[in-house]
Specification:
alpha/beta; 2,3-Dihydroxybiphenyl 1,2-Dioxygenase, domain 1; 2 domains; 2 helices
Length: 123
C-alpha cells in the first residue's frame, strides 16, 4: 500500500451551528457544498477538507495534560502569521495556548473542545 495524501478529517460536533461559526467565522475557512442527508458541514483548506459531523452523543477523549494541548488528539493547520492568528482568536473570546516546545505554534479549542494546532507557514 502507498498512501498518497490526506483527504479530510472528520470532526464530531454536538452543536453544528456553534461549530460552523467557529470554523467558518473564527477560523475563516471556506464552506463547500455537500450532498449528504445527515447533518454536517464541509470546509476546504487547499486540497484538504475538514468534515464536521453532527452527533447526538459526543464521546470525549481524555486530555491527561490540559496544560499541553499539543499532546492530545488534534489537527494542525498552517497560518501565514501566527501573531495575527492569536489576536484574531482572542478577539473572538477563544482561549489560546502557545506551544510549550518553543516553536512557532499555538493551540485553540473548538466549541466541543477539539484541539486545533496553528503553525506559522515558514516556506
Amino acid at each position: 500500500m502507498q498512501i498518497l495524501k490526506c483527504l479530510h478529517t472528520a470532526v464530531p460536533v454536538s452543536d453544528l451551528a456553534k461549530s460552523e461559526h467557529f470554523y467558518g467565522e473564527v477560523l475563516g475557512l471556506v464552506k463547500v457544498d455537500r450532498q449528504l442527508r445527515f447533518p454536517g458541514a464541509w470546509y476546504q483548506v487547499d486540497d484538504y477538507q475538514i468534515h464536521l459531523i453532527q452527533v447526538d452523543r459526543l464521546e470525549k477523549l481524555p486530555n491527561d495534560l490540559p496544560e499541553k494541548w499539543g499532546r492530545g488528539h488534534h489537527m494542525a493547520l498552517s497560518v501565514a502569521d501566527l501573531e495575527t492568528a492569536k489576536q484574531d482568536l482572542r478577539s473572538h473570546g477563544c482561549e489560546v495556548q502557545v506551544s510549550a516546545s518553543g516553536r512557532a505554534a499555538l493551540f485553540v479549542l473548538d466549541p466541543d473542545r477539539n484541539i486545533i494546532e496553528l503553525s506559522e507557514n515558514r516556506t
